[in-house]
Design brief:
4 copies of one chain form a homotetramer. Chain A is an alpha/beta fold and about 350 residues long. The first copy, chain A, has 2 domains: about 1-145 and about 300-320, Rossmann fold (3-Layer(aba) Sandwich), CATH 3.40.50.720; about 145-295 and about 325-345, Dihydrodipicolinate Reductase, domain 2 (2-Layer Sandwich), CATH 3.30.360.10. Chain A is built from 10 helices and 15 strands. The first copy, chain A, has helices at about 1-10, 30-40, 55-65, 75-80, 95-105, 120-135, 150-160, 185-205, 290-310, 320-340, and strands spanning about 20-25, 45-55, 70, 85-90, 110-115, 140, 165-175, 205-215, 230-235, 240-245, 255-260, 265-270, 275, 280-285, 345. In chain A, the strands form 3 sheets. Chain A has a 7-stranded mixed beta sheet with strand order 12-11-7-10-9-8-15, with helices on one face. In chain A, strands 3-2-1-4-5-6 form a 6-stranded parallel beta sheet, with helices on both faces. In chain A, strands 13-14 form a two-stranded antiparallel sheet. In chain A, helix 5 packs parallel to helix 6 (about 120-135) and helix 8 packs across helix 10 (about 320-340). The interface of A and D includes residues 19 and 304 of A. Strand 13 of chain A pairs antiparallel with strand 12 (about 265-270) of chain D. Chains A, B, C, D: It is an enzyme of class 1 (oxidoreductase). Chains A, B, C, D: One of its GO terms (molecular function) is inositol 2-dehydrogenase (NAD+) activity. Chains A, B, C, D: Its EC number is 1.1.1.18.
Amino acid sequence: MAETSTAVESRPAAAVPAGAELRVAVLGVGVMGAFHVEGLSSRVRGARVTVVNDYAADRAEQVAASVPGARVEADPLAAIDAPDVDAVLIASPGPAHDEQVRACLARQLPVLCEKPLTTDIDSAYRIVQAEAELGRQLIQVGFMRRFDSEYVRLRQLVVSGELGNPLMLHCTHRNAGVPATFDSEMMIRDSVVHEVDVARFLLGEEIATVQVIKGAATRRAPEGFNDPMLVIFETESGRVVTDEIFVRTGVGYEVRTELVGELGSATIGLDHNVVRTGADGRWGGEITPGFIERFGAAYDRELQHWVNAARRGTIDGPGSWDGYAAVAVCEAGVEAVRTGERVTVTMGRRP
Amino acid sequence: MAETSTAVESRPAAAVPAGAELRVAVLGVGVMGAFHVEGLSSRVRGARVTVVNDYAADRAEQVAASVPGARVEADPLAAIDAPDVDAVLIASPGPAHDEQVRACLARQLPVLCEKPLTTDIDSAYRIVQAEAELGRQLIQVGFMRRFDSEYVRLRQLVVSGELGNPLMLHCTHRNAGVPATFDSEMMIRDSVVHEVDVARFLLGEEIATVQVIKGAATRRAPEGFNDPMLVIFETESGRVVTDEIFVRTGVGYEVRTELVGELGSATIGLDHNVVRTGADGRWGGEITPGFIERFGAAYDRELQHWVNAARRGTIDGPGSWDGYAAVAVCEAGVEAVRTGERVTVTMGRRP
Amino acid sequence: MAETSTAVESRPAAAVPAGAELRVAVLGVGVMGAFHVEGLSSRVRGARVTVVNDYAADRAEQVAASVPGARVEADPLAAIDAPDVDAVLIASPGPAHDEQVRACLARQLPVLCEKPLTTDIDSAYRIVQAEAELGRQLIQVGFMRRFDSEYVRLRQLVVSGELGNPLMLHCTHRNAGVPATFDSEMMIRDSVVHEVDVARFLLGEEIATVQVIKGAATRRAPEGFNDPMLVIFETESGRVVTDEIFVRTGVGYEVRTELVGELGSATIGLDHNVVRTGADGRWGGEITPGFIERFGAAYDRELQHWVNAARRGTIDGPGSWDGYAAVAVCEAGVEAVRTGERVTVTMGRRP
Amino acid sequence: MAETSTAVESRPAAAVPAGAELRVAVLGVGVMGAFHVEGLSSRVRGARVTVVNDYAADRAEQVAASVPGARVEADPLAAIDAPDVDAVLIASPGPAHDEQVRACLARQLPVLCEKPLTTDIDSAYRIVQAEAELGRQLIQVGFMRRFDSEYVRLRQLVVSGELGNPLMLHCTHRNAGVPATFDSEMMIRDSVVHEVDVARFLLGEEIATVQVIKGAATRRAPEGFNDPMLVIFETESGRVVTDEIFVRTGVGYEVRTELVGELGSATIGLDHNVVRTGADGRWGGEITPGFIERFGAAYDRELQHWVNAARRGTIDGPGSWDGYAAVAVCEAGVEAVRTGERVTVTMGRRP
């Protein structure tokens, strides 16, 4: 930690001088990372991408070429250490997160880390601890639904008390399709993880148990895969959360959430603002085709909040504890898929 | 009128003894008449069809054969005069209505007359006068929307004052298709006539002027036909009613009504109770294919109200004045189509 | 059974001569029975109430007085045996059903029995067997949702294959309020029982297991009551059914059902046909206040189907096996409430 | 024009060097201008406000103080001439627009001018001509609905041909309330003007005639004011556009548009993505309270498009001709209010 301390001394808490743009290294420029590069470069104010890294060199080159002033850095740790980097956006594959996030902490750089924080519960907890020892929040985790106007409205309805005590939460999470290799474990870690954070965000407490009920599978799923599944969370205070996860509907991207309170209920994600009729004798609208169409604005808002906060050397959104809690619940969820039993979520003490 | 008086004497005001069923002659058994025969025979309580009449003998035979105890009578006036007839349902072509309704009045039989009451304003007014001289309401006109639960709810919202003073009314009336001969005049007399009655029912006053704006026509319409058209009514107190009439949409049967009041607005006809998604990536529902699907229950309710009232020798629904007013407005509407001008509706004094 | 046999011989299979009305004894005229008496007397064709029975003599008198030609019979078995009774509608309290239904079977009278068929699984099975020995279906059970146009539509979507194989079913069942004594067991037997039948009707197979998850309770519920609860069924083929049962929402009567198929999903019960805006700055509609407003038309359609069938000496709707299956599932459901475990449903062989 | 020529020479067509931010002078910082200042400073990329002008000195000071690096310039023409200004955003009162826009043209500065372009048809046409003589598009007019995702989607449905030939357009434009002085002429010039542009945008042609029907007025309107009104446009090709304009509903901001095509219809502005139930027994959502909530994102998107284009010395949105056409139609609309007649729109030749 000696070197880290040195680094800390050489770098003020608020990383960016007034008027200057936040210089961002983006690690991993697959679909999500490239989308963020574009957001930082054209839709968000106050930052610019200076360094691009990807294990696929040609992809890194291609993305860097699209951004004036950006260069490629082949080694992610070198990118983090680069003198023209004030903050880091991690969109690399999950297994790379642990080392990359810790390197950012070592340099005390603000970081926006796409989920998962790390791929196992122990490393995630160690990161929580390391950040706590620094005494500053530097890690923001990419749960972008917290920036979606509809989830924000739902949270307001909870906080304001208009719906009374929230008793149940019903989530629907459907994708038109996924790669053939997307198995039950990935359904938990990549898809259900969003509802894990949504439930924690809306209800304001931790998830205590997970149960998964595997029903009849769609023929679209490979033999032996469970799709759809019903995931049931119970929270510390005994609230019940259901999540239908169905990733091969052939229909579209349907993400709906109904919160049932003591005084009323509210549903978001209805996608009902444009309605038309047609010669097929039907009325209705188009289902959002994918997550960028549905949550694109939330991603940009997430970026803008993060950039604004990172310029002050902090975060403005879900932090490392939220990332850790999601890893812990997903860990239990994966075991619940395997055993068919209700599994208790085990979490460390919050520092 | 002497004969009529005799008839009156020979027949008590309440035509049907307690416990007995109302014996109905149905004149005209095309789509509408046959639907009513079926309703009187299987969905409505307290009546049965005893006599069937139609200018097409085979159609009359076919319908009568489907009803136990019903017989054919080739002459509509003989049907009205038959000793086993307590009430008459007129679903014959419009030009036959005048003579048939007057024959019913002469025998003082309760009558349910499909619109139009008659095909010209003078004969319609003479019927209003003749009924007024009898001193009893015997003529109910088949404006079945008044029995539709949604229009009833809308009327309640007006009457209760919840919407405040109703200022505007916007109507949409669309059919998937019509026979090739269905011209602008028929659009007024057969389609818009429903909105004429709806406007009078909801607003509780007479229509004072009619204007018709012929816009760009659909290619589905024969050369020279105006489809769609925008019809604009102004009422005696100056309220504005718009009606988009479009009868060749190729889509379905769409009948919507929005009432705009001083304190709020309300829309009915939304057809939104069943929603589904499909592999076409759309959400939504099916548009009602035709008027029986949309208003079938209202027709049956109309029949039940009429049967209950006719057993007491009276009506329970829109009367001859409502039929007359609709004829008068449609008369002006047809002229408005021809001239493109705002045409004043001319109506006689209400007896 | 000797006397019964005599009765059978003295009474033809088709109980009612052509043209005559079905004479119905109604046992139990609380809210539901009185509603049925009114339906049989004014909204349904082909039947009339001749005998009224209730353990509360004054209530029976009051209801009988409202129907011309109806009389009170103080003893339900005497009512069943009365010579002016062709069929029996049982709306008495559940514990009385077993003896009353068996008396109807003994006289081979068609019967419409409100749920539950009986209050325990053994007596219900004995009724199934007794009817099977008769070789005719005489018992129809009052699961009226099968006659609701929206459930019928949903069933059609399943049968037609438009939604593909149905994989999950999500039900919501909410009441504004219930009597203070309405406990978790009653929530299963009186409320969830409808979803039991809906699931069997829509999916066309039996329910194999039941699990109940009791979450945080509303403050409106008495201490120690579980409201809301999440009930989870798995069917023989492994489909998953969820049912949120919440009977003290203070909001209204909300009954929604979403079927998730391999090719798409469909939701009914949306209550969205009338929409309005108001000075409170909200758009929307009124939630159905109670079950009669929501399912009144289904009840009448059920009655009409039953009357038509009973005149031919048979049934047209869910039968004794459906009543038995519901009892069996509810039995398991009540145990599931007690134990918190997944409980297997035990059912006898279908005769 | 000599001075102008000089200015042109001294300033390259593409006003901003790569990498540099567009320096914007904002003229008029009332509600709209202040909102734009905030947008340019925190939500839009590539520009910053350097100069703020308002006839109310204190307001200008207050707004400038909120933006690092911005200063006040008391004279709008001096602001336009300032060396640290690359582009101008005009949000001053309408009567000031003519002189300010012409000054921008003289300096060949890109300008985003809030509607109206000018307050009379002749001055508007002279601006169109002056810009045409320059041979470059510099004037973008603030019809922000063209940047709203729903209008964009509706336009796509027209362009793609999915709805077939558009035959009618029905617009609803309602405000909860307006200042007491907001009279019929202002309803045309400030409110209906949006539907003028929407109709031109969606239908892709000019409006030929305007008619205004004044119905019963709400009691909320001052004596002699006409609120609501029905405005009817006919386009060059004979399409019909209706616009209900009602600015004192007491309800909220309701802006809906239904396009009726030969092959189907589409409606936007439904505001139905969040739905809730409550103890008032109603389901539904909140109506957008005002234009910033409804169109805030469209305003920002408009700014971003304009900034991107202005950096290249051009526009990306509705131009001076669109501003002129709107003035011409509103001129006719105001006369239509006065006369009650159908008024022909008079427009100059498009340069």
